[in-house]
Amino acid sequence: MRPLVLAGLILAILGIVALAVPSFTFFTRDRVADIGFFTIDVARPHTIVLNPIVGGIALLVGMVLVLMGLRSRA
């Protein structure tokens, strides 16, 4: 498979994922206090929001790269 087609497919898949899942949240654990046998941990949420415009542009550029890669083969 040509590198241009592969890069286009990866961009198109990432664009579809960005359009389908607009945001995702993950948690990190921070140690707030550590006193002898007692420890206090806090789970803090972090939300990452993906702009749908960026997903659409990634999908469009990916499709263009795939078409250019397939056209140069002929």
Q: What attributes characterize this protein structure?
A:
74 residues; alpha+beta; 2 helices
Notes on the protein architecture:
The model has no long low-confidence stretch (mean pLDDT 91). The protein has 2 helices and 2 strands; from the N terminus they run H-E-E-H. The chain has helices at 3-20, 52-73; strands at 23-35, 38-49. The two termini are 14 Å apart. Strands 1-2 form a two-stranded antiparallel sheet. It is of the alpha+beta class. The radius of gyration is 21 Å and the shape is elongated. A hairpin with a 2-residue loop joins strand 1 (23-35) and strand 2 (38-49). The chain has one domain. Helix 1 runs antiparallel to helix 2.
Q: Could you write a compact summary of the structure shown?
A:
With 74 residues, the protein is of the alpha+beta class. It has helices at residues 3-20, 52-73; strands at residues 23-35, 38-49. A hairpin with a 2-residue loop joins β1 and β2.
Number of strands: 2
How would you state the average pLDDT, rounded?
91
Radius of gyration: 21 Å
Low-pLDDT segments = none
Spatial arrangement of strands, main beta sheet? 1-2
Order of helices and strands: HEEH
Number of helices: 2
* Overall body shape: elongated
Main sheet makeup: 2 strands, antiparallel
In what range is the share of β-strand residues?
A: 25-35%
Structural class: alpha+beta
In the residues, how many domains can be counted?
1
Termini separation comes to 14 Å
Relative helix content: 40-55%
